[in-house]
Amino acid sequence: MPIVQVTTNITRIIGAPFLKSIAALVAEMTQKPEKGVVVMLNPQHQIWYNESDAPLAHIRFTSLDMAASDHAHYSSKFANHFHEHLEIEKGRVVVEFHSPPAENLGKDGTTIAELRKQS
Fold first, then answer.
1. How many Å separate Cα 109 from the centre of its chain?
2. What is the mean pLDDT of the chain?
3. CA-to-CA distance for 51 and 31, rounded, in angstroms?
4. Hey, what's the torsion of the CAs at 65, 74, 96, 4, to 10 degrees?
5. Bridge-partner residues for 57, per DSSP?
6. Distance between CA atoms of 89 and 20, rounded to whole angstroms?
7. What is the pTM of this model?
8. What Rg do the C-alpha atoms of the chain give, in angstroms?
9. Could you tell me which residues come within 8 angstroms of residue 22 by beta carbon, excluding any fewer than 6 positions away?
């Protein structure tokens, strides 16, 4: 169950088609079903980075069983996607990776670790 939280200072309306495009991108990157990808968008934040308030996206990407060796590839995919769809410069797409243990992620009233035991 990959989770993508995007915080940005973009003020224009970013609709569901863009959120769906992120879900599709993450499903492709992780080889997990798109229906299990959670995407949250937090627009219109005040963000200052590299002496500028130019458009920026901070992405917190959480996914179980994510290898650190994939981080650079994922970062590149996110940077390209945000540049193509929102015109954010690639150098202003910041990605924070998290790969918690299955015991630390809950779903359906239990944890992923417990759900895995049942299957």
1. 23
2. 94
3. 37
4. -80
5. 8, 93
6. 21
7. 0.92
8. 15
9. 4, 6, 37, 39, 81
Is residue 96 packed enough to be buried (19+ CB in 10 Å), middle (13-18) or exposed (0-12)?
exposed
| pLDDT of 13 above 90 | no
List C-alpha distances in Å: 110 to 33, 40, 114, 117, 119: 20, 22, 7, 11, 14
Q: pLDDT tens digit string along 23-45?
A: 999 999 999 999 999 999 999 99
Distance CA 2, CA 98 (A): 10
Structure tokens at 55: 């458009």
Tokens of 47: 């963000």
Alpha helix (H) residue ranges in the chain: 16-30, 71-86, 112-118
